[in-house]
Amino acid sequence: MLNKKSVDDINVKGKKVLVRCDFNVPLKDGKITDENRLVAALPTIKKLIADGGKVILCSHLGKPKGEPKPELSLAPVAVRLSELLGQDVTFAADDNVVGDNAKAAVAEMKDGDVVLLQNTRYRAEETKNGEALSKDLASLCDVFVNDAFGTAHRAHCSNVGVTEFVDTAVVGYLMQKEIDFLGNAVNNPERPMVAILGGAKVADKLNVIDNLLEKCDTLIIGGGMAYTFLKAKGYEVGTSLVDDEKIDYCKEMMDKAEKLGKNLYLPVDTTIAKEFPNPIDAEIEVSVVPSDQIPADMMGLDIGTETAEKFADAVKSAKTVVWNGPMGVFENPILAKGTIAVAESLAETEATTIIGGGDSAAAVNQLGFGDKMTHISTGGGASLEFLEGKDLPGVVAANDK
């Protein structure tokens, strides 16, 4: 899965190139509020323009559930892309994605021109990988480039189905970077390798914990999921978030770590409060107690100060660090300390640091450490499945080298 042809391996001069991007950006009153995904797509688009390709872009936006929703149109993306690229991006406004507007716009293209198609999820077949839309998309192009890692774990028309009807299917720079960093971090890391897992639920990370235990030297568990592990050790965890159905699984994982000779670190102290903050960023009274001394009427909401130091120490000696999931309720300034401490330790290390998308990416960017990380994944679910060791349909579909 990791050795795919990329845009550097093909010649697109004079050819029509369909590029699947991830333009699933947040919109407010028709304005884009965060354009990171647009900026991330620029290197691939600029490369194809410079090489004389006729560049046809496609993406989904939100969840229109197979019907046109004007508020989820990609029209604002075409406007902003024109500004970012310094050239016109023609928007083909077809509710059926590949309609008269798209066909006419593509027919008129000169080398280096750019056209953007309407939201691929306006068509119900998109998420079902239906043949009709796959064929429609393929009919527009000679070459297909997938640069949307965020949807790589889904088999949809615009990333998998279309590849069955084109001869050449390669990955873009963004996709290549994800494969290089996430793929190699998991399958061929420079050691010692430390994996840090957080977030609320153990259930979301079952296979990730299992897979990473085999690959890493040290596995650190924080966030809400740590309390299920602490309960599995026989500790009182008060009213903290616990997944009672996964207690035996946590015991198995602790046994597995011991058998494999891996370090499995859990919080040694925890930041507790009477209840979950409401609203989430409300002022809240907290105290820090040892992890085996949480009062029955209190809940753990962040790792404690001693734990933060212990986790930071583990990172110092690492050569590769993969982090997925915050250490506590990072949206609250009082409960963000554990997540900040881990982010700081990653920012200061010489190791390759990889942030596995989703909440951890949001946390690192929000807390101002984004530029200090080696790689921040652009996919939430896709990065998790990569860390689980699964094959991603969107990656598998590209031509092998």
UniProtKB/TrEMBL annotation:
Q: Which InterPro entries match?
A: Phosphoglycerate_kinase, Phosphoglycerate_kinase_CS, Phosphoglycerate_kinase_N, Phosphoglycerate_kinase_sf
MF terms in GO: ADP binding; ATP binding; phosphoglycerate kinase activity
> In which pathway is this protein known to take part?
Carbohydrate degradation; glycolysis; pyruvate from D-glyceraldehyde 3-phosphate: step 2/5
Q: What is its EC number?
A: 2.7.2.3
Amino-acid positions noted as binding ATP in the UniProt annotation, renumbered to this chain: 205, 300, 331, 357-360
Ranges in coiled-coil conformation: none
- Got a GO cellular component term for this one? cytosol
UniProt superkingdom: Bacteria
Q: Which sites bind (2R)-3-phosphoglycerate? A: 37, 121, 154
Protein name, please? Phosphoglycerate kinase
* Species in which this protein is naturally found: Candidatus Anaerostipes excrementavium
